[in-house]
Structure formats: C-alpha cells, structure tokens
Amino acid sequence: MLALGIDTSTRAGSIGLADDSGILAELSLSSGRPHSEGLLDAVRSVLAGAGARVDRIDVFAVASGPGSFTGLRIGMATAQGLALAAARPVTGFSTLEMIALCCPVPSMPGVPAGDSGAAVCVLTDAGRGEVYRGLFRRVGDEMTQLAPERLMRPQEAAAALPDRCLVTGDAVAVYRELLRPHLTGGRAVVEPPPAIGGGLAVRAVRLGSASRLPPLRPNYLRPSDAEVTFKG
To answer: Which of 148, 57, 31 minimizes the C-alpha distance to 94?
Structure first.
C-alpha cells in the first residue's frame, strides 16, 4: 500500500510518502513561502525522489488541524483534487496527535529507550496570543488522548503541564520565556517540532482498508475571522 501525507496546517508544513516498509521520502515545505506556492512542486519532488507516480497512490492523508485556516483549506483541497483524479480515498488525522506521535523521545531517567511513558503536550501557535493544545500519552506506537484538544492562553497551558511531560510544537519558540519557569522536574522540551508528512502517510498505511480510515473533516477549534466579523 502506498500513501501520500500532506501537512499544511503547521507553520513549516511537510509532504511524506510511505508504504508498508515505512517512510520512503519526506520533504519540509519552506516556512518563508505560502504553502499554496510550493505545495504541488513539493508533491512532485517527493514522488520523483521515490520513483513513484500520483496515479499509484492508494490513499491520501491530510493533517486536519487545528491550524491555519488558509493552510488547512489548501492542504485539504489539494489532497481532494489529487484523490479525485486518481479515484482514491482521502483521510484526515489530528495535527496535534500526529505531532505527538512523531515527536522524538529523548533519554529520560528510568524510562526505557524509545518509550516515553510520559505525557506529550503539543502547543502550536494559534495567533491572537493563544495556542492550540493537545495532551497525549504515547507508549510505542499507541496514542491515548489525555484531554480534549483546546484553544488556550499560553499562560494557562504552561500552568497545566503534567509531571513527566514532553513539550513540543511551534508555540514553544514563541512563548519560550513564559514556559521556562514551568519546565522543571520531569518536564522537557523537544525542539524543533517534528515534520508530520511522513507520519500521516504511515498512519494511513497502517490502518489499511478504506473502511478503517477516518473521514476528512477540518478541525478549526475556533471560528474564523470572517465568522467573528459576521456575527459581530
């Protein structure tokens, strides 16, 4: 099975290709360019690098948010267009959960290598002085959601960090000084946050049949500026 993963929900973004053996190719998008400008070129590069063709893709997997409204729409529209042309299914996975799943596990006292046994707190920059927070526990390749994904003030997210927690996501760099007093004991920062394009593709391959793939639904967590303006 061959899957293409597309993440345009995060600031960096990434594209990944995977089959049953694992990730075949992965490419981070340029954070200095809008994702709309480089996305299709990146898809072509990843496919060419692995000697694959878009009509050979079995499933397209997209990061469904939360994240940039424009970024989410670009990624979903591109994947849906490619999937329609290839007559293949398209699926979506939580951006925050995928970051947690792809987060490298550092060496921690009393914890077996490769097994965090700790919570993974993902903080991504939501703008307007807020962050998107996801809280998970990872044991091997299994993820458990410890709390609903939320839109929060960074001060609230920092104060609510559990003990023995890995913290990652692009909001770490934005709110480093605010987080610093809370990074004590068993809490550790993992930077830079991982690319998830390859992880999206791997997750789709592991689920296998189309009947097990979740539907592609955007997860915005808050109304868009246009909605706020209209209601106001």
So the answer is: 148
